[in-house]
From TrEMBL:
Membrane spanning residue stretches: 15-32
Organism classification: Eukaryota, Viridiplantae, Streptophyta, Embryophyta, Tracheophyta
Cell compartments where the protein resides: Golgi apparatus membrane
Protein name, entry field: Glycosyltransferase
Main location: Golgi
Keyword Amino-acid biosynthesis: no
Length: 661
């Protein structure tokens, strides 16, 4: 009897030793980030999410003082703080797919006839669905943090706005096994070798909303993980057939004026400060590619003076020598890897017409490019996340839901697939990944889960949308009327034949335009109109071609296609949009060819324009013609055109955010 007990004790001890060795090996793998180190979080799925310490992000002050808020002037570094994807809870991971039916007939980018191009063009921003449709530009997490015990969302407010959200979503209930989806309770699924990203576990950048304490609050209590049977990313099935031309909700989506105003001169200072102080996360393991970028940075900073580049005009640039050297190094060095994962139409689908065309054209031209694109991710300096923010909203947004819950979840699921298959996101915390998104919702959709990526955004709002100098890039919003001929009707009349002092036409989007029209609609020297009819005597394009100054007034958001339209028609842009960061701001000297008017100075607009000397106007108009080449979409990319300028902005930003090696 005693012998049997001794024998059992010895066997038990051996088993404990064996389990200890296995556990030690797993910990060792986890510590050194070997590619399959996601096993441990799967085994310990009940663990709480890890939030990196040392987060120096802060909120915009509620003061109405028009000075720069503290969080905008204190450029912070997160070189030593990061969230490992493998340390994040799997609680909010939901893989969705759609069998593809109902998507094949999606109407995308209907071409307009030549007659429509010469008719009185209505406001191109009418198709714009702003984040204010949701009643707030702040993250869904803020509302989820206020969830009451009975499962309802409590109403909260900030800045005088209602932040209530409707928890119910038809898209969540239209999913069934009959649609090719397998359902499993969350608690029963643990995907091995996967590193799940949950929206609430990524560090926030400037002006970020509060993070919910409960990681499960991102999903309903009865939520399920939906695993696609073909092991690929799919779509949440919308409850309505998607259409590019659908009419947005008729609802007041206006934001109030910003709490803080950053002048263009203050932006210049902030840009310089960020270049000197902002640093992305230090790579978790070194690479020869990092050394190439570090060397490029040194060569750019010590660029020789430009003397033999007649196609570049020095007055258009902050430093034309640095720009040319950086551009040359980009052409010689840069390699981009495009993730093949993701299904159309949200991923790998290019919308080439309308006001969101920039993201589509960039996607199309980059995918076809052989100079910059590599098929080997180990050779890539940058990684492109090829989704369309326009199609994300078009396919997944549930009308009248006032929630972008499905949209954020879908992107989160996509990143889960990427990080479980590849190790590159973990190496830099996503800092060498980039996205190009033009929809107004894009900053909110990506603010958490892609917080450390380089975000090329049309809605480049420095205060309300968390745009960050040194990390984000301002993307030009271009209104393309015909995909087959994006350069149609380019140009305008010479200055001597521009008899209109200033022109504006557009719907009363937002709080600013009604004020603008109230002051100046009936002034004989200014041609200011509300929304133009589709057909009529007043021709939008012809007026832009005949005006000295074209007013680019913000609508629901800070960005407007009129900025690029003015350049397209060789009209000096007058930008009235506080806290708007103009495109390619890190390299172009916008004050040399554009006029910036603070919103509070609208009553003085006419005096401001008339006070500009004729000589100054002629110089600015000449520079508008010179800078135009940097804002043109060519069916086949041309050196220094908008495609190359966007790519250069992303390259330039990545080069200057690296810590010295």
């Amino acid at each position: 009897m005693i012998k049997s007990w001794i024998s059992a004790f010895v066997e038990t001890r051996r088993l404990i030793w064996l389990l200890g060795i296995v556990f030690a090996v797993v910990l060792l793998i986890q510590h050194f980030e070997i590619p399959y180190s996601g096993v441990l979080p799967s085994l310990l799925a009940a663990g709480k999410p890890h939030v990196a310490s040392g987060d120096n992000s802060s909120h915009v002050s509620s003061s109405t003082d028009p000075k720069v808020p503290k969080n905008l002037t204190s450029n912070w570094s997160d070189a030593n703080s990061y969230v490992s994807v493998n340390e994040v809870t799997t609680g909010s991971a939901v893989l969705d797919r759609q069998d593809g039916e109902g998507v094949k007939n999606l109407s995308v980018g209907q071409s307009q006839s030549s007659d429509n191009l010469t008719a009185g063009v209505s406001d191109p921003e009418d198709e714009n669905i702003s984040s204010d449709t949701l009643g707030s530009s702040d993250s869904l997490a803020t509302d989820e943090a206020n969830k009451s015990k009975d499962g309802k969302i409590a109403s909260s407010s900030a800045n005088g706005r209602d932040y209530s959200l409707n928890r119910s979503s038809k898209a969540d209930t239209d999913l069934s096994p009959e649609n090719g989806i397998s359902k499993f309770p969350i608690s029963s699924v643990a995907a091995p070798n996967s590193a799940m990203i949950s929206p609430e576990n990524v560090d926030m950048h400037l002006n970020g909303p509060a993070t919910p304490a409960n990681p499960s609050s991102w999903l309903d209590g009865n939520a399920t993980i939906l695993l696609p049977q073909n092991n690929t990313i799919g779509l949440l099935k919308p409850n309505v057939a998607p259409s590019i031309n659908k009419v947005p909700m008729k609802k007041d989506r206006s934001k109030p004026p910003p709490l803080a105003v950053v002048t263009i001169s203050q932006m210049n200072d902030m840009l310089m400060q960020s270049r000197a102080s902002y640093r992305a996360m230090r790579p978790r393991w070194s690479s020869t590619l990092d050394q190439q970028l570090s060397r490029a940075k040194s060569l750019i900073e010590n660029a020789p003076p430009v003397r033999d580049e007649p196609s570049l005009y020095s007055t258009l640039f902050r430093n034309v020598s640095m720009f040319r050297r950086s551009y040359e190094l980009m052409e010689k060095t840069l390699q981009v890897y495009i993730y093949p994962e993701g299904e159309s139409p949200i991923f790998h689908h290019a919308v080439l017409e309308g006001i969101y065309a920039s993201e589509g054209w960039f996607m199309k031209l980059l995918k076809a490019n052989k100079m910059f694109v590599t098929k080997k991710p180990t050779q890539a300096h940058l990684f492109y996340l090829p989704f369309s923010s326009r199609m994300l909203e078009e396919v997944l947004y549930v009308p009248d839901s006032h929630s972008w819950r499905n949209l954020v979840r879908h992107l989160s699921n996509y990143l889960n697939v990427i990080t479980s298959k590849y190790r590159f996101w973990n190496r830099t915390g996503g800092a060498d990944h980039f996205l190009v998104a033009c929809h107004d919702w894009a900053p909110s959709e990506t603010q958490k889960i892609m917080a450390k990526c380089i975000r090329a955004l049309c809605n480049s709002d420095l205060v309300d949308e968390g745009f960050t100098f040194g990390k984000d890039v301002s993307l030009p919003e271009t209104y393309v009327r015909m995909a087959k001929d994006p350069l149609r009707e380019r140009g305008g009349k010479p200055p001597s034949k521009r008899h209109i002092l200033a022109f504006f036409a557009g719907g009363n989007h937002g709080y600013l335009r009604p004020i603008l029209l109230e002051y100046w609609k009936n002034d004989p020297d200014l041609k200011f109109f509300g929304k133009l009819p589709t057909k009529g005597k007043i021709n939008y394009v012809r007026h832009m071609k005949s005006s000295k100054y074209c007013i680019c007034a913000k609508g629901y958001e800070v960005n407007s296609p009129r900025v690029v339209e003015a350049i397209f028609y060789e009209c000096v842009p007058v930008i009235i949009s506080d806290n708007f960061v103009p495109p390619f701001y890190e390299t172009l000297n916008w004050e040399s060819f554009a006029v910036f008017v603070l919103e509070k100075d609208i009553p003085n607009l006419k005096d401001i324009l008339k006070s500009i000397p004729e000589k100054r106007y002629l110089a600015m108009q000449r520079r508008v013609k010179q800078v135009q080449r940097h804002f043109l979409w060519n069916t086949k990319p041309v050196k220094y055109d908008i495609f190359h300028m966007i790519l250069h902005s992303i390259w330039y930003t990545r080069v200057f955010q690296l810590s010295p090696i």
